[in-house]
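During the second half of the funding period, the structural biology subgroup turned its attention to how the target accommodates small molecules. The most pressing case was fructose -6-phosphate, which had performed well in the primary screen but for which no bound structure existed. We therefore specified the complex as follows and requested a full 3D prediction, including the ligand pose.
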Amino acid sequence: MQIVHIADTTKLNTTVARYIFDRIKSNLHQNRPFTLGLATGSTPLGIYRELVPLLGASGLDLSGFYTFNLDEYIGLTQHHPNSYHAEMMTNFWLPLQKLNPTFKLEHTHIPDTSTQNPDEECKTYEHAIQKNGGIDLQILGIGTNGHIAFNEPGSRGDSRTRVVSINEETRKVNADKFFAGDISKVPTHAISMGIGTILEAREIVLIALGESKREIMTRLLNLVEPTENIPASFLLQHKNTKIYTDMSNM
Ligand code: F6R
């Protein structure tokens, strides 16, 4: 894992957005598709704010550009403002389509938790990722307990897309950030890509912003081998992972 420290968060967002844009552009210029793994939550928002206009104004034909999201809550409809589907529509997919109509909404993927059969949906999602040729670059945030996607502590390193329960600490953090502090409104379950699924991405960019992530990042960076107690530590097994952080003395 390579760690890149950029103290100015705005500069960090611009740097990461530019990096992802260049990776997408390089593939598309060679007539090769590009599949971007998307995360939700507060961390990637600043990057999306930069990346969307870059892609939008690029003049690139985005018909070879695909996205797969990491996870979705169970129990919120796609139209619920706190669903990850709605979050992506608002912050990425619709603004990009408006700027560059070659971007196809049919090329976006997020687990469909409205289904009667979530286990089947997990298999379908895994299959869709494979059929699409895998993920070229996966964006990740990290939870204060070390989760990536909704792989909470105790998740196995070889886990695949599945129905997971969201633990109390994560629900509390998300309640405060997105549900006006009301934990009863935060779903208890989600469909999440597994750690094994994430590790198959050809490149991973993990972003850790702000002091609330310092403790978990310090624990993570001091590990020599992965532990289920800190799901993000399985990234130690990945050959092409960069961590971008705005925290000094990491
Ligand atoms: C969201 C996701 C989560 C978040 C994590 C950090 O799709 O997969 O793992 O990345 O909970 O959330 P924020 O960015 O809000 O601190």
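Two results from this model are relevant to the next phase. Residues 22 and 55 are 10 Å apart (CA to CA). Residues 39-43, 70-71, 141-143, 147-149, 177 surround fructose -6-phosphate (CB under 6 Å).
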